[in-house]
Amino acid sequence: MVLDRKARIQRTRQGPVSTVRGKGKAEALRPASGSPPPTHDPLRANDPVIYDLVEKEGRRQQDTLQLIAAENRCSPAVLAALGSVVQDKTTEGFVGQRYHGGCEVVDRIETLAVERAKQTFRAQYANVQPHCGTTANHIVFNAVLHPGDRILSLGLDQGGHVSHGAQVSATHAVYDIAQYGVNRQTFLLDYEAIEAQAVKCQPQLIICGATAYSRTLDFARFRRIAERVDAYLLADISHIAGLVIAGLHPSPINEAHFTTTSTYKSGGPRGGLILMGRDHNRPIRAGKTHRPLWDHLNKTTFPGVQGTPQLNNIAAKAVFFLETLTAAYKSRQLAIRENAGALAGCLIDRGFEVLTGGTDNHMILLDVTQFSPGLTGVVAQRCLEACGIIVNMNRLPYDRKGQSVTSGIRLGTPIVTHSGMQMAHMAEIADLLHSVLTQVKPVSDTSFHLDDRFIQTTRDAVCGLCRRFPIV
Ligand SMILES: *Cc1c(COP(=O)(O)O)cnc(C)c1O
Questions:
Q1: What's the gap in Å between 461 CA and the centre of ligand 1?
Q2: pTM reported for the whole predicted model
């Protein structure tokens, strides 16, 4: 989000604050905080078209309700590091083993990023070079597996991530994939069933971690399963890393051999991260010799999977990890989880089917087909978007609808919480969702009718709510 924040705040102040009927006056007038906006004059001068689109994206983010569980908002300081001259430095390899000159400054940046990542996750090893969460996973696969080796992971249609072995992924093309699911009745992981499957299929790597699962993961149990079949364990905590940092979800760092995460879902820059705890020094065979796992992982990062690190992105990660060490970051994680619990409760009160009856994290999965006849995930996503409410359709476990239709939507509270919304505002959000999904008339699995005046009134109400919480 690279918008001229000052312009956005001014717009908010002049704008429809007065249209908020009766409530939220104090919120509406809350002073903007944060560092001064980065100037975008060179962008405006050189490329007015992109400048205008960047502005428009900023306005979209301010004036619509962001409920995508995989999104968050980074700080102006993180944005400043991303847009800095560090972007222009090229090198290869890790600190102390660079292949280009002139690295004395970026070496300090990467060292700080690593030290802060280790501190925030209480890890023994951190690798801040992965370009994204998917690549972080591929680096681990490349480190411990040979082509054709077997991975046991949560299926895509059960809440797993594409990179864990979905048919369409490179993981599936290179490795032999076996997948576990959730219990058909409870939609919860069934550890006994996973253990039985592991014993039967003898994987070399087990992956735990999900992209659509709203309950706590038992990493210690996964480790016992991995030990029993002599497999490595990878915990992918992309969605829940913020909760892990804040101590609001058990940490996998000393349970899994490897922990991976994307860094944007927890409020940092886009990018990936690999961490290790007590297993970081464990030897692994590399050709004719053995190396410690951490050293092996560096070598399989570069030149194994990636080329040059994005050093501006690594600087931004360092800034973000410093933020995660603050009490403010930790209390925000608690608020995210409390808001998700409150929103789930409000939705259940209004007749929605929430999978597993609630949530332990920042995410809520709704079965919209149970709410009204003919409603599908894609219709819900599109009619909500028409009204300014941004969610994503999501396949649910054992979903009878295809992946471009789906029975569900997934909601998340990181951005609304970051904006300053509290538990009381979750009722307003639930009312908006209820009102739109009651009003919409599905015509087919993918099309619907919704009254134009209703759309306009709801858009105005959504915009009014969002502008009480200006992006700063
Ligand atoms: C989002 C996500 C990823 C992918 O991260 P990218 O940085 O988008 O590649 C990987 N694993 C899980 C579980 C995720 O939720």
A1: 33
A2: 0.91
